[in-house]
Predict the structure of Rhodopsin domain-containing protein.
Amino acid sequence: MGETPGKMYALATVLILLAATAVLLRLYARKIKKASLAWDDYMILFAMLSTIGTALCMFVGTALGNLGRHTKIAPDGSPVFNHQLEINYASLMTSTLTFGLTKLSVLLLYKRIFRGALFLAFVWTMITVIVIWTVAFFFANMLQCYPISENWTGLGGSADACIDENMMYLGQAFSDAITDLIILAMPIPCICALQLPTKQKLGVIGMFLLGILTIAASVTKLVFFYKIAVESNSGDEDFTYLFTPTLYWPMVESSLGIVGACLPLFRPVISKLSPVRSIREIISFPSMSITSSKKASTDARKLEDGDSSSSAVSSADSIYAGGDRDDGRYFHRDLQVFVPRETGEVGDVGTKRNAVEERYHAGAPKGYI
């Protein structure tokens, strides 16, 4: 299928709606858990804003420029770009920001939900790498020609005024795909180490591995950039048509990246909307609501008074976690599964009372596995 203006409008519309839906569901999941926004949420909101900027570049480029069209030739034989070069330049800025902010959002999510000194050191190392990567390529794209106006007064400006654009684009696309792959693989050892049933481990890993769609888009973008570099060096002068994929493939990657970053946090929404889960709640909880709530209140008072006996804790677990929990596990608010206490968010909490309160505030009665 060739490039057409209709295809550009459709892609921009579908992709921005897909990303926006993922972000809204993420925020709704936070609302369900009555949790305040964390730094990873703010990063994804900023990434969403820059993705909107990339989508606007596609809309404007199609409406005013030559995006999705073959290059028009003026009577004097020179190509007519109709603002396409300015739009391509702006898109480079917005898409680079989106890639960096999305990666940072995922890394900050890892920092929030996983534990372990070695893993956290790796997370901080990757955060540093991504910050440097984002700043470096943002300014490399911005200052690839001097003066900056050379970016849109001619295709790439003169050889003396600009760096080798093709090499820079390929370098950015390659390093983008590599960092995506590293970030995607990072949590797998941590999840495998959790004392969870195999089916549940695979489910949690699967939520994270759906981000592989982003890598697929990133690799495809790399292939297109290489193809464009070869064709442009071979003398192909249909510039606006040739460079159209350099605008929409970053948009594809931006949208899928945001979706992949939000997917691991969707479980509260899915659970809330699941009719099977609702039936299980109706069957399970009314029968225990009166007696269990009284006993839980008594046990909560015992814990408050300093009674950390196993009977008080296990009874509180019964009402808070939907069943007796005598295996030292707690309900993980973000992964929405029961995990060993020492491996997760409350692993550093010093008292059993705080651990029980953490389960209660996480909404554990609604957290069936």
